[in-house]
Design goal:
Radius of gyration: 32 Å
CATH architecture of the largest domain: 3-Layer(aba) Sandwich
Strand order of the largest sheet: 6-5-4-7-8-9-10-11-12
CATH class of the largest domain: Alpha Beta
């Protein structure tokens, strides 16, 4: 113990440097060995198992489209890049990719669940149940009579939420909300399967909802005065402070002076 403590400083520094160099050499050796092992054909990927939601895709087609875009062996493949490759495929919303020893990948997919069209008619844009806009072949849409939503970029979640809020109210009046638009100025415009167009105005969701409920509470009363039903509605404007204006098919001009509610 005394002999070690009595070693000159330069000798102790040399011993320390030698130990550090030995550790560095060992680390490089392990790294090189790991890289060599990872590149061996014995560790090549021999299969991709695909599970999850496959309504618009099938495992065979997915593997055929993705495999040429993947590189590396079981140990060296970049799982994050592989995930992005799967998520770039049509209808795939989310992919979880993990290694499955000894030579496979297991991929779990979540597909988009379409709830509406997005944008102008003809654009290959859809809205999923999370309010996310994605592109896909419209011919592969399985649902019939999807509504069409429209608004500024990035506003799809807000438009979908407003549609889901308003739709039950109009359904009670046997009115089918076919399109809902958020204009560049923040106003809401509703189009109905029966042909009517209703300007709902701007403001918060509670404000728009309050105007809509007031309108629907009195619509039957107003239309009945002219011998019409709610399906005779052509246009309505709810942006008036104390009431609304509407036009009915078969009735010349109708101002809301006497029907303000």
């Amino acid at each position: 113990m005394t002999d070690e403590l009595s070693l000159p400083v330069d000798i102790r520094l040399m011993n320390l440097m030698a130990f550090v160099m030995l550790l560095a050499f060992a680390a490089l050796l392990v790294s090189a060995l790991s890289l060599w092992v990872a590149r061996q054909q014995a560790f090549s990927l021999h299969g991709i198992a695909v599970t999850g939601e496959l309504s618009h895709n099938n495992a065979v087609t997915l593997r055929a489209n993705v495999t040429p875009r993947l590189s590396g062996t079981f140990f060296s493949i970049d799982l994050e890049r592989a995930r992005l490759v799967f998520e770039a495929l049509p209808w795939v919303r989310k992919a979880v990719v993990r290694r499955e020893f000894p030579d496979r990948l297991r991929v779990t997919l979540q597909e988009h669940k379409t709830v509406a069209y997005w944008g102008v008619e003809g654009e290959p844009k859809l809205v999923n149940s999370f309010g996310e806009v994605f592109e896909a072949n419209l011919g592969e849409v399985e649902q019939d009579a999807l509504p069409r939503l429209h608004g500024p970029d990035g506003q799809a979640p807000q438009v979908l939420l407003m549609f889901q809020t308003l739709q039950p109210l109009f359904e009670e009046m046997d009115m089918t909300l076919d399109q809902l638009e958020l204009t560049a100025h923040g106003g809401w415009r509703a189009h109905f399967e029966e042909g009517a167009v209703v300007e709902l105005g701007s403001g918060s969701t509670p404000e728009v909802l309050a105007r809509t409920e007031r309108f629907l509470r009195t619509l039957t009363q107003v239309t009945s005065r002219f011998g019409r039903k709610s399906d005779a509605l052509e246009t309505a404007d709810l942006r008036h402070e104390d009431g609304y204006a509407l036009r009915l098919r078969g009735v010349s001009t109708l101002a809301t002076g006497g029907q303000k509610k």
